[in-house]
Specification:
The complex is a heterodimer of chains A (145) and B (134).
Chain A (H helix, E strand, L loop, with lengths): L2 H29 L12 H11 L3 E6 L4 H10 L3 H10 L1 E6 L5 H9 L4 E2 L1 E4 L2 E4 L4 H12 L1
Parallel strand pairs in A: 1-2
Antiparallel strand pairs in A: 1-4, 4-5
Helix pairs in contact in A: 4-6
Chain B lengths: L1 H10 L1 E6 L9 E2 L5 H17 L2 E5 L2 E7 L3 H14 L4 E6 L6 E7 L2 H10 L1 H13 L1
Antiparallel strand pairs in B: 1-5, 3-4, 4-6, 5-6
Helix pairs in contact in B: 2-3
Classes of the chains: A alpha+beta (145), B alpha+beta (134).
């Protein structure tokens, strides 16, 4: 084989290796762990104290076990990387479960005027019903400014 | 004339259509049912799960197959369901009688379809299994 052909073969192999390494680097980037799942408070008093201490607004998610739209919010919205990052940086998240049909839940619903689920209160903004991640992100960013 | 009308009604009858307002949020309204309605709603969904005979998936939703004799129960369930889930499109279809099936069509945009697959997951599982067994 002529030396120039060898050079071509080695060059092609190096280029291929470069492509493989670049591909690996890209896949590592997408697989890199993002912000952790939202660490919801479940105690209103604790969440409120934390929000005061950090001077952050609360993000309240009212939900119930029977509420399919709440499950959608969990699966499609709260899992979104950008949403998780926004919540971690700017909010104190509180999840309130309205599954039980007792006086405590009734009082909670009355106090927050919750008539449908899911209801999300982000600072002073109220969202009723499921919204996709991009829409939620816009709401969260508007409040966080 | 009466004969023609009778014949037409025997071929295909769309019993009921409730179109959703697309601006209605995907939310479960907590205050729509009385206690009796809620109990009846639970009773009907249990019955539908027991009696569903098959299903079909379409791009915008799901259709559930039942025996024609259940059309009244389907209408009752639909009346209740439209109160708590007004964002869904409901349609009850009766195939030519005698012998045809009754279909319950639930449709909507992609998010509504996602809601249907979440909320009606147990019914879908049973219906899918029955469809595959046929």
């Amino acid at each position: 084989m002529k030396p120039t052909l060898w050079k071509c073969v080695i060059g092609a192999l190096l280029a291929l290796l470069g492509l493989v390494l670049a591909g690996y680097a890209c896949s590592s980037e997408t697989a890199a762990p993002g912000p952790p799942p939202i660490q919801w408070f479940h105690d209103e008093g604790l969440a409120r104290a934390r929000a005061r201490a950090l001077s952050k607004p609360m993000l309240i998610d009212f939900r119930a076990a029977w509420c399919a739209a709440c499950t959608m919010l969990d699966r499609l919205t709260w899992t979104n990387r950008a949403v998780r990052a926004e919540v971690a940086a700017h909010y104190v998240p509180l999840e309130l479960d309205l599954t039980a049909e007792d006086e405590e839940v009734a009082a909670l619903m009355k106090r927050y005027a919750v008539t449908a689920l899911p209801t999300v209160i982000a600072g002073k903004t109220r969202i009723t019903g499921f919204i996709p991640a991009q829409q939620m992100l816009a709401v969260l960013q508007a409040r966080a400014e | 004339m009466n004969q023609i009308l009778k014949l037409l009604s025997v071929f295909v009858a769309v019993v009921s259509i409730a179109r959703a307002d697309i601006t209605t949020p995907i939310a479960c309204n907590l205050a729509v049912f009385t206690k009796a309605e809620r109990a009846r709603h639970i009773e009907l969904i249990a019955m539908l799960k027991e009696r569903v005979a098959g299903m079909r998936e379409s791009t915008d939703g799901y259709s559930f197959r039942f025996e024609a004799e259940l059309v009244r129960a389907l209408a009752e369930w639909t009346t209740l369901e439209t109160k708590c889930c007004p964002f869904l499109d409901f349609e009850i279809e009766l195939e030519p009688q005698p012998g045809g099936a009754a279909w319950l069509h639930l449709r909507g945009n992609p998010e509504v379809k996602e809601f249907i697959s979440t909320d009606f997951e147990p019914l879908l599982k049973i219906a899918r299994a029955k469809s595959e067994a046929r």
